[in-house]
Amino acid sequence: MFRKNEFHRQGSLFSAPSLLPDKLRHRLEASWAATFYREVFCRIEESLFAVLYSEKTSRPNVPVNVLVGLEILKSGFGWSDEELYDHCCFDLQVRYALGLHALDEELFEVRSLYNFRRRVREHAAETGVNLFAELMAQVTDEQLTRHQIKTQWQRVDSTQVLSNLAALGRLELIVAVVQKVYALLEDKEPWSERLSFYLTGRAQAVCYRIARAEDHFEPLGQLLAELAATGGEAGDLARRVLAEQYEIVEGQASLRKADSVSPKSLQSPHDEEATYRNKGGKGNKGYVANVSETCSAENPVQLITHVAVADNQQDDAKLLEQSLDEQAERDIEIDEVTTDGGYTGPVGEAACARHHVQLHPTRIRGGRSKADRFDWSDYQWEYDAAGNPSIVICPQGQRAEMVEGKLFRASFTGCEDCPFFGERCRVVARKTGPILYVSRRSIEVALQRSGLREIDRKVRAPVEATVRSLKRGLTASKLPVRGLIRATMVLCASALMVNARRLHAARVSCFVFFLQVISAIKALLRHLVSFYWRSTNSGRRGPVLAGIR
Q1: What is the pLDDT of residues 442-453, one digit of tens each?
Q2: Cα 541 from Cα 533, distance rounded (Å)
Q3: pLDDT number for residue 547
Q4: pTM to 2 decimals?
Q5: Which stretch of 8-12, 106-110, 167-171 has the lowest confidence by average pLDDT?
Q6: Are 136 and 289 in contact (CB under 8 A)?
Q7: Residue 39 and residue 507: Cα distance in Å, rounded?
Q8: Is the pLDDT of residue 19 over 60?
Q9: How far apart are CA 243 and CA 223, in angstroms?
Q10: Nearest to residue 397, comparing CAs of 415, 383, 385?
Q11: What is the 3-state secondary structure (H, E, C) of 357-410?
Q12: What 8-state DSSP symbol labels residue 217?
């Protein structure tokens, strides 16, 4: 049965903080724990998670805001479950952050945390709604309103995150799939003897005993072909791997060449959503996280407004579209977005146009000319009333009218005497005369490249530090979980912790500034008192006023 937790709002004369000496109590109240309690814990809308609990009269739930707060702290600090539970039991700052003020308060078992995660994951699988993504939106929207953060200008970046998978060779992958399929079978007896060799340990241990991998690929393919006919979840998994790793020729399973296997193919039977991507010469098995944050210079602090997680084959432009769509549903006003070149292209530009957002990339993807040719941005373009290119002016100043077809074309005259004709110039010789062919997309890219702003490079750079902060709790960018749902839960929780740290840093800096102002006022008063004393007691020596320090 669901019940909201309001006990943390009730003060106690004998709470743990009240028993501390004043100096330590003030220090606790000025620490990150107080900021987390105020900016995150007290803002958690527990009713979001009410769907996870029975409506029947039964034993009340463990406080949802405590369970959610623990998940946020775990993601933000990179603790294991054991470390997390120990901090919850014995760390006064963590208990203060979670509203657990009484030391004699009975604490739940760690199993409650496991069950809570499971219910959130199952709910997301059934409904498509990840409650941690909903929670991040709800808490962040309240923070944006409370601190009057301007969201009109945002910057965006993406990063690769690894799933918690063991590195598997091709044979190890297929053996692991056979083991998983066997585990999913309802009737195992007909297969026990045939698969016995591949069930004698983990896939790596089985393959370690195999002298020649080539001798096992085809027999495993035939086994998968037979297992694919069993139906159910086991049959679906067998069919997928058989289609991805093998070619069926005359009823025989033949292993595909490695370079013909799709990067979207299964990387592990324990995480069927993870995909493979080679970026920057480094292979990644897992997901991509897209981060949007405010960047207006008028803001006292910049906050992450949205996190999207997808398989790492997802294009950045699609992630930008998702970010704009979901922030529009939250009534977040966005006028400008600064990105890198990966977000340019028809998809990203169309999404920005639909939401009336100006896209400011630091570079443009595609359309770059070779060094020995004029770039399309070297040409000038004029448009008609309908917004279509009508006139082109070449780098030498020649004008020509453009005619639209599959490609735009423009007929020039007198190009034969031009020193660039047939060399750098893009005009080509035809029987009817010199003609320039150009696509609409090339013109659009040229105009975008000529409109790049130097300020956007400086504006975009800090988002890379935001990405590093988001992955602060990860070891070598590797998630401690598997699956898209759990990856989203971890990264959304981490984003909430990043925002909490920033709000705390802003609060501390404001407090320091306040102390500096007080110190300056006291110094000015000392100076004025000293000046008054000297002016009224010239020629006499007396005690210096020392009351103001």
Answers
A1: 888 888 888 889
A2: 10
A3: 47
A4: 0.86
A5: 8-12
A6: no
A7: 11
A8: yes
A9: 13
A10: 415
A11: CEEEECCCCCCCCCCCCCCHHHCEEEECCCCCEEEEECCCCCEEEEECCCCEEE
A12: H
